[in-house]
Design a protein that fits this description.
It contains four helices and 18 strands. By secondary structure, it is mainly beta. A hairpin with a 7-residue loop joins strand 1 (about 25-35) and strand 2. It is globular and about 65 Å long.
Length: about 400
């Protein structure tokens, strides 16, 4: 507890040091939930996050911004985690610009890599679209924020509890180098948006199960009156060490596929509302084929609110309805069905190891109500359940359920 107090005081002292023509702000997010995340027993979870932030112009064409974070939580005991969040220097010159620091990056489909990364990115804007190139490092990020579990070694690192006596070995994300060249155009012929990226990541760890991978990702969108159609695709090539090679030092070449499709319909209702259907597919390992492997993203993105699983060897179908009922009140409801694409890539709940023969994992139902009486304050209440009974992989397994409440306050 004393350690957390010292960290919190340090964060409060650190930011005012930079207060030269600074825009200073503070935000806090208070989260509480109750449910059965491990199915066997009900648990209460609390997480409070405090975000001091500031920004300042630098010269005539630059900006600097910094956000820190301190998380205090209760889940199987009390914990506190300090974190440096988005901290970025941006310099603009002509039609281009340079970003340096801890910044947000996402590939066109958010399948490969999405989140905060340390590095630099150059971009150039022209009539032909925006071209950008960036290089980033992951080994200085907090592991739960980075959410990198590409290999078994990565997963063990992610699941290990933080030990301040061995801080360097238990706090940071796996060391990987990420590089990407991206191009996007917002309105080809006034209707079609197009994004594409060539991304590569290099495993810089000393682990025996090293994994290097490369991705070609594309996403297209078409707007037709009140409808938006989107389709994304990703091709992965990888060099996988020690996975199925006879020699430990031998590298195995594999390929994998992923796609994403969505239809969005702005409904003709008196209030703003939208109905959408999305399909997300991340290929699994092809039976009898040593080349086609399970798709492995750099960062993990979840497509369920309760059933949170890595998109590798899975298909997720979402039907989502959102509505702004009043100026301060909005609501959403989503139904998601999960299917595994092969019988080997995905394991764990709700799969029954003895009867491991079903592909359909189950269906999740989740609803959310958001009240925001003014822009700096929001209360978010949600709840739902994941039902294996609506699948074939483990129809007799217990349901997962959760209710949650989040309150967010911003002070500028």
């Amino acid at each position: 507890m004393n350690r957390c107090k010292l960290i919190f005081v340090f964060l409060l002292i650190l930011l005012p040091v930079f207060l030269f023509a600074v825009d200073f702000g503070f935000m806090t997010s208070q989260y509480a939930s109750f449910g059965n995340p491990d199915v066997e027993e009900n648990k209460f979870t609390y997480k409070g996050i405090f975000y001091p932030r500031f920004s300042s112009p630098v010269g005539k064409s630059g900006d600097f911004s910094m956000t820190a974070g301190l998380t205090l939580g209760a889940e199987n005991g009390f914990y506190c985690v300090p974190e440096l969040l988005r901290t970025e220097f941006m310099l603009r010159f002509g039609a281009g610009g340079l970003r340096v620091g801890r910044m947000f990056y996402s590939d066109p489909v958010s399948f490969v890599a999405s989140g905060l990364f340390d590095g630099a990115q150059y971009y150039f804007i022209s009539k032909a679209g925006t071209l950008s190139a960036g290089v980033w490092y992951t080994g200085l990020l907090y592991k739960e924020t980075a959410n990198i579990t590409m290999t078994q070694s990565d997963l063990q690192n992610f699941n290990a509890a933080i030990d301040y006596g061995e801080f360097a070995d238990t706090y940071f994300a796996p060391p990987r180098l990420l590089a990407s060249i991206d191009w996007e155009h917002p309105a080809i012929a006034g209707q079609i948006s197009l994004k594409t990226a060539l991304t590569a990541q290099f495993d810089l760890s000393d682990n025996d199960d090293k994994l290097h991978s490369q991705y070609l990702t594309m996403k297209a969108g078409l707007t037709v009156k009140k409808f938006i159609f989107e389709f994304g695709y990703s091709l992965e090539t990888a060099q996988n060490q020690g996975v199925s090679a006879e020699e430990e030092d031998e590298s195995v070449f594999t390929i994998a596929f992923a796609w994403d499709a969505g239809v969005y319909w702005m409904l003709p209702t008196p209030f703003t509302s939208r109905l959408s259907f999305n399909g997300h597919f991340a290929g699994g390992r092809a039976a009898g084929n040593d080349t086609v492997y399970a798709f492995t993203p750099v960062t993990v993105k979840y497509y369920g609110d309760i059933f949170k699983q890595k998109m590798s060897g899975l298909t997720v179908l979402n039907l989502n309805y959102t509505a702004r009922i009043a100026s301060a009140l909005s609501a959403s409801a989503v139904v998601s069905h999960f299917v595994r694409n092969d019988l080997g890539t995905f394991s764990g709940y709700p799969v029954n190891a003895e009867e491991n023969g079903g592909f359909s994992l189950g269906t999740e139902f989740f609803a959310r109500l958001i009240w925001s009486p003014f822009s700096d304050f929001q209360v978010n209440f949600g709840g739902g359940a994941f039902l294996p009974a609506l699948g074939s992989a483990g129809p007799d397994e217990k349901a997962q359920w959760k209710i949650e409440l989040t309150a967010v306050l911003s002070i500028y």
